[in-house]
## 1
Amino acid sequence: MTTFASLRELEKARNKKPDRGYSVEALLTKGLRYALKGWKAGGRLTWIITTTMLITLVPLSIELLREEQTNEIVKELLNKGYTFNQIQGMGYHVQTPPSTLSTDIQGSTM
């Protein structure tokens, strides 16, 4: 072998990349390819799920906040001395508490 040929062989041996089967670079590129395929194929499913969540959860959370505010207003009105009938007349839905004077007919023994 000539000197140039041996130098070329040495250079080829140095530049030779290790087996890509177990390298971190191979795992990253395979993972990125898999994620890209999943992103392209799963985009429609993701869009459907997020739209459904927005359509259902946003109005539900708004309704819960509104109900909480209504309960606070009713408590304030009760503290000011309004009766349940007056509060219902204002348009708020209030359940009257059960009376402690009435007795349970089924539970009483005579």
## 2
Amino acid sequence: MNRDDRSYHTTEVCNELPYDSELSESLLLLPLTMSLHRDQMPPNLSVEEHDDEDDSEEILEAVNVHSGVLKVEAASKVYGRYSRIALFTGLGFAAYIYSLDNQTTSSYIAFAASDLGGHSLISSIQTAQSIILACGKPIIAKFADISSRGTAYVVALLFHVMGYTIIASAQSINAVAVGIVLFAIGYTGLQLLMQIIIADITTLEWRGLINGLLALPFIVNSFIGPNIATAVLETVGWRWGYGMFVILVPLCLSPLIITLLWAERKAKVLGLAPVKELSSESLLGRARILAEELDLFGLVLITACIASILVPLTLTGTVNGGWSNPSMIVLIVLGCILLPVCGVWDLRYAKYPVVPPRFFKNRSVIIVSLIGALDFCSYFLTSVYLYSFIIVVKPWSLLYASYFSQIQSMALTVFAILAGVIMKYTHHYKALLVTGLCIRLVGVALMIRSRGANGSDAELVWTQILQGIGGGFAASCSQVGAQASVPHVDLAMTTAVILLVTEIGASIGGSVAGAIWTSKMPRKLAQYLPDLSEKERATLFSSITDVTKYERGTHVREGVILAYSDVMRDLLILATILSIFPIFLAIFLPNWYLGNKQNAVNDGDLVDDLGRRRMSRGRGRGGYTPLAGNESEAVAEHAYGRRSVEFTEGEVEDC
């Protein structure tokens, strides 16, 4: 509902009202607290029948912790037309540089490691990076909640810049590893904070569309990025490839960060957000309060638990013995032990838990997390070796193979935008989510038929398009559905938890794909190429470059194609089975109404609720009890009787 469309219901025109200090103050509160139109208000509501003291207790307790959320809501009151344009322009610049960074720097690590004599350590570096990308999300989300979105963006940017600076000036592979770790902290922060800020400032009906539009740079940079990377490597070298983003990233993020910090500062000056006073505390006391609010011990437990699980999943294909290696078993057992310890700590001992117990009661959050994990597990089962499969099986050039590898991502981006448009006008997401998951299932299943050498090119391309269509619908709808199910105070951590569980699913899918490939491919090569020596088969297994030296139609090339097709079939069958479960899970999701609100479960404004609560406490037993946001229209109705006259927001403020 637009600002101009709102109307406020009371009983008389302002200049005809008898003066009463308490009632006048009640009227002055109305512009801050009203969020529902009269036809959305429960009938026959009166102040005696409703007392929000108990209903809002949990949210207001959370408000005491989540000062970052308070600052966001307070800042939203100071945005005007031009500052809002600046905010979305800043998001656009941030989205573009984020995608350009992603599409270019991934090509540099191999050259950097080779120049510094550490090419064999690339897998270890990438493992550390993937673990930090997953584990860093709850830490960044928690920090953004207790500080502010702008402050968290500055911190993430500093890590990003420090990481690339160290890599660009590295004289050893160890320095590169340190730089990658710092960069990963910043990168996961920028990735998460963009999604959080979009959810902060958009209503449910627009959120899917805005998310989709800000993913458009990935389509553009899918073609621009590789060309830039090639030009950089052929001219100035990989050091400048990293170094250019030390300049470009801060430059492109500056409009967004400046706008966020400006709004937070202006809201503070205007007194729109309460400020937590810590001046009386000692330095040690402040550190203790910060650690308590961050739930530092809980973050350490969760990080150790997730790392213990992800390390074996990502390293089983490279360590000696694979899953039979004792170190892998010890880490998995340690992760399984720490998991219930994390739960006990958050449920019983943490004052401000990283994952609040109410998350475990939220059907939408749990189901969407499981859908994300299963969907990404299925995706990585098919995608890890897809490029190698295409190079070996199809007589395509490297350029066309690269284009093929981008088809699914481009389709996903385009149809995520379409999903946003559909949700804008239908105001629901569940049917579209189920439809998307079904389309994705069809795309994965069709690959079983088209995987072989005799499968047509068009059929193989369409399997990727279908998976992109379904993935675009599913990604957009599931995220909006989960965010609709939580109040604003839980938004950041909900987003982080869902992305974390999704990352775990991706790691499981990649690990299982690697295990199946490494265990079955040598046997299949021996089955179809029994005349080759074991050493020759090992060479073909370890290098697609050696495979492509044999022309299509030769005995060796055709034998390798048959082996690749058989192993890919096993991966696709497993991926197809996993793709079925998200459909059934989605059926049990609540079909939230995506309206003109930040979320679907709480209509109140945390800043206003806190202000009214403090006012009530200050007045003692003065006879005025503030109402929750969706009950605020009843204040004047109770005070002046039942005759109703509509006021605009400006007229009430004039009163």
## 3
Amino acid sequence: MVMEYVRDNWGSFVSLVSLIITVTMVGFAIWRAGQAKESAEAAEKASIEARGAITRVLTIVDLERAIAQVQRLKVLHRESKWEACLEHYADLRHMLADIERTHPT
């Protein structure tokens, strides 16, 4: 009796199995998409943190260059080399403006 029902309704049985497999696979695909989204968000966060760290390091390098420029200016002031001071002041002003542009207060 059961075998007759299965034999007579074979198409319906296959359709039901196909539906179950399809729903399962769609659920799996949605789950994997959620994982991919989480991975993408984590990668974005890591890239933002890395970009910030690189910016901080570059700013420190720029500040060290500005400090060295100030030290050169101090020597030029002591030696009364005013023309050279003017050139170094312009360079220092550009350095500090770049730092301010990179990290506004």
